[in-house]
Design brief:
- The chain is mainly alpha-helical and 78 residues long.
- It is built from 4 helices and no strands.
- It has helices spanning 3-22, 33-36, 42-53, 61-69.
Length: 78
């Protein structure tokens, strides 16, 4: 295996071990990074993340989705 393949294999193994150790715990919420930014899956995850953090952003799920879907360029402007 190449160095990159070894790193990927180890990363995958560690992620599976972590996921297995968290399975069945009531106070754990897991999400995949790509799901947080997926238009189809974003709504539930983004709202739940804000709830967990305890932030009061004052936006509905539709408003959160609209803000999250806004593309920004490298300068941070819409």
């Amino acid at each position: 295996m190449s160095q990159v393949e070894k790193c990927a294999w180890l990363w995958q193994k560690q992620n599976r071990r972590i996921a297995a150790s968290l399975e069945g715990l009531d106070d754990v919420y897991t999400m995949r990074f790509e799901d947080l930014f997926s238009p189809e899956k974003r709504s539930g995850h983004l709202g739940r993340l804000i709830e967990i953090v305890g932030a009061d952003v004052g936006l509905s799920d539709d408003e959160l989705n609209r803000v999250a879907a806004t593309r920004r360029n490298a300068s941070g402007q819409a």
